[in-house]
Design goal:
It is a single chain. The chain has 681 residues and is of the alpha+beta class. Among the domains are: 257 residues, Beta-galactosidase, Chain A, domain 5, CATH 2.70.98.10; 190 residues, Aldolase class I (TIM Barrel), CATH 3.20.20.70. Helices cover 17% and strands 33% of the residues. The strands form seven sheets. Strands 6, 7, 8, 9, 12, 13, 15, 16, 20 and 21 form a ten-stranded antiparallel β-sheet that branches. Strands 27-26-25-24-23-22-28 form a seven-stranded parallel β-sheet. Helix 7 links the parallel strand 24 and strand 25. The longest helix is centred in the N-terminal third of the chain and has 21 residues. It is globular. It starts with a helix and ends with a strand. The relative contact order is 0.09.
């Protein structure tokens, strides 16, 4: 009898144990249930994941994991499940600046704990939001010494073809024009890679929280499968063994998040906070010194060729600096950039004794900084490294101490050239470490950073909010010395590059045909042989781009004489770069976009189109109910056209409320900007 009872107890125990094993969750859905992620292990112990959207397969089972150089410690396979768990989160957090200062983080998490015969531990964490998902790897090695990462197994095997918008997947530059092509014809791509499927489903592949790890690009292997490839530590040649080494990592480390944003509309991608939500909370105890700003600066004239970074045409002189500061103070502009103030940077080369604290002979930096403070204007310094990050790091702390002592709180950094020094790809782990070091050292000294030619944004502005903005795309300067950016470029960027974070595009050229510099002496003739340089938009589109192309440090880049007495410049005077909330209202990738941003009780609207003229019906339901607004429209004139009549614009004032709808007519490569200011009786 006792034996039978013991057997029964054991049977119950085994039943519970086995049911517990079978019940280990290997699936997780988004809070609204529309997106379902299923994880599994194949017969070789390789982790796989699959994604379904609205009950239909979206990503077929695809491999996961990293690859190392040791046969005894396999990172890619041989795994067995140890445990799994599903949890939920629904919270709200705030940031000191951003498209939206209040962010909701609502997701469900599936955490898989795996181990293989080599005693390598692997945690795979999935977070699934209503607008997509992210996953990352955390590895535990048996020993504590540094380990080599030689590749990544992550794949994205889409079940059907799609239209794609991307730039080439190289490891040194993002300054390429976007390509529109079927996914099945794509060779490689940098991220964010944006996709549109036949059932009007949109997606974007990117990564979040890139810390101490190389950047990822995508290579198409077959059909519609994309595979991750990591930037190498060196890129001296395919036969160099260092080309195959991607990262050096400690015994326990986490990868960046691999992200897939999913939306039912193109603007749904733009309105997502998924990338930010996958980053760590703010690392700074005090953020009171961090603030968005509008700025102008000595910059555009150098790209037009009428000024230079040094020599007899030097643009950053004391005289010019004082004039720019006066203009900023008189026009509600908070900052001035002094690019080219430094003695050593000459545009194409640098002196051997490059010193990041030494001003050019015709630039009295102490006087200029003091004058800016007197006028209530931020001095934005400029450190161009020419890609020589070693030299910059050698002087980094000293140069930042010098800036802090002068009261400089804004810094633009540059890494012009094909890559970093000594064959180091700028998007490598070495580059990532360098750029992170600059941000952290700047934060210690309360300095905000605008970085050019750096790594792509991955949401780290949440953790380090002094990383205000960056370039990482083909910006305005290409209009100064090449065929320029095509009309659709500005309608692609919000759905691609800007999904990662703010961009310092430097918009706002009013003199789109460069009439004001005709006959002026030039350092060089602008343009490539046979190229007619100009800005390929209407004037109204340039105004709207201040709203559409988000940056918390937003520049009005044109020469001052083109703004001084121009009626349309009133929009920039009224515009507030420190917005509280934003929404992309309507649009399609590469065709058009309409965005509104709120700053307190004021709203600023921008809409732009590609080379196709179009009419938009725009509801004003985003305005505060019960409030009457004075709406000032800066719009294309009826006869405006970017090719034949780009300067034609109208300014119109209306009284509106949230119950109204506006009909807006956009010229080819045109736009409309509107300021909504509460009406005071």
């Amino acid at each position: 009898m006792k034996s039978l009872r013991s057997t029964a107890i054991l049977a119950v125990f085994l039943s519970l144990f086995l049911s517990g094993c079978v019940a280990d969750p290997m699936e997780v859905s988004s809070p609204d249930g529309r997106i379902v992620v299923t994880a599994s292990l194949d017969s070789a112990g390789v982790p796989l994941y699959a994604v379904a959207v609205d009950g239909r397969p979206f990503i077929a089972p695809s491999p996961m994991g990293l690859v190392n150089d040791r046969l005894d410690w396999d990172l890619a396979g041989g795994f067995r499940l140890v445990s799994s768990q599903v949890t939920s989160c629904d919270c709200v957090w705030h940031q000191p600046w951003g498209e939206n200062k209040e962010i909701r983080d609502r997701h469900r998490t599936l955490l898989l704990r795996l181990r293989n015969d080599g005693e390598v531990g692997l945690d795979i964490e999935f977070r699934v939001f209503d607008d997509g998902l992210g996953f990352r790897y955390t590895y535990d090695y048996p020993y504590s010494d540094d380990h080599c990462i030689c590749g990544e197994s992550t794949a994205f095997s889409f079940v059907e073809d799609a239209l794609s918008w991307s730039i080439p997947g190289d490891f040194n530059s993002y300054e390429h024009l976007y390509r529109k092509m079927p996914l099945s014809e794509l060779k490689d791509a940098n991220t964010p890679l944006t996709l549109k499927f036949s059932d009007s489903l949109y997606a974007s592949i990117h990564e979040a929280a890139i810390v101490d790890f190389p950047e990822m690009v995508l290579r198409r292997t077959e059909g519609t499968m994309l595979c991750a490839e990591l930037a190498p530590l060196k890129q001296d040649g395919i036969h160099d063994s260092s080309y195959f080494l991607k990262a050096l990592v400690p015994a326990r480390f986490s990868s960046p998040w691999r992200t897939i944003q999913i939306a039912r509309s193109a603007v749904g991608l733009v309105n997502s906070s998924l990338i930010l939500n996958l980053n760590e909370p703010c690392a700074l105890a005090d953020v009171s010194w961090i603030h968005p700003m509008k700025y102008i600066g000595v910059w555009w004239g150098m790209h037009l060729g009428v000024e230079s970074w040094g020599g007899p045409y030097h643009g950053a002189t004391t005289e010019a600096a004082l004039r720019y500061i006066d203009f900023a103070a008189a026009n509600n502009i908070q900052g001035v950039l002094f690019e080219g103030w430094n003695d050593a940077w000459r545009g194409s080369d640098a002196l051997p004794d490059f010193d990041f604290t030494r001003a050019a002979a015709d630039f009295d930096v102490e006087r200029v900084v003091a004058y800016a403070h007197e006028k209530g204007v931020e001095y934005i310094s400029h450190n161009e490294t020419g890609g020589n990050f070693h030299r910059f790091e050698e002087q980094l702390e000293r140069s930042l101490d010098w800036a802090q002592a002068l009261g400089i709180h804004g810094l633009k950094t540059g890494y012009a050239g094909g890559g970093l020094y000594d064959g180091v790809p700028r998007h490598s782990q070495t580059g990532v470490r360098h750029f992170q070091k600059v941000i952290e050292e700047a934060a210690k000294r309360q300095i905000m950073v605008d970085a050019h030619e750096v790594i792509k944004p991955s949401g780290l502005r949440r953790t380090w909010p002094n990383f205000m903005t960056r370039e990482c795309a083909r910006g305005m300067e290409y209009n100064g010395w090449s065929a320029g950016n095509p009309p659709e470029h500005h309608e692609i960027l919000p759905y691609t590059r800007l999904l990662g974070g703010p961009m310092d595009y430097t918009p706002g050229v009013f003199d789109v045909l460069y009439r004001s510099i005709q006959g002026r002496k030039q350092v060089r003739s602008w343009g490539q042989p046979g190229t007619q340089c100009r800005v390929n938009t209407t004037l109204a589109k340039q105004i709207a781009n201040w709203v559409v192309l988000y940056s918390p440090m937003q520049m009005a880049c044109d020469l001052l004489e083109n703004y001084a007495h121009h009626p349309a410049f009133q929009f920039f005077r009224d515009f507030d770069a420190d917005c509280d909330a934003s929404e992309a209202l309507q649009g399609e990738v590469g065709e058009y976009i309409a965005v509104v941003r709120r700053a307190g009780d004021r709203f600023f609207y921008g809409a732009t189109t590609d080379a196709t003229p179009r009419t938009l019906e725009q509801s004003l339901s985003f305005l505060l109910p019960g409030t009457t607004y004075r709406a000032t429209l800066y719009a294309d004139a009826p006869d405006a056209d970017w090719q034949t009549n780009p300067y034609a614009y109208d300014i119109e004032t209306r009284t509106v409320t949230s119950a109204d709808t506006l009909t807006l007519t956009l010229a080819a490569s045109g736009g409309c900007a509107i300021s909504f200011l509460p009406k005071v009786d």
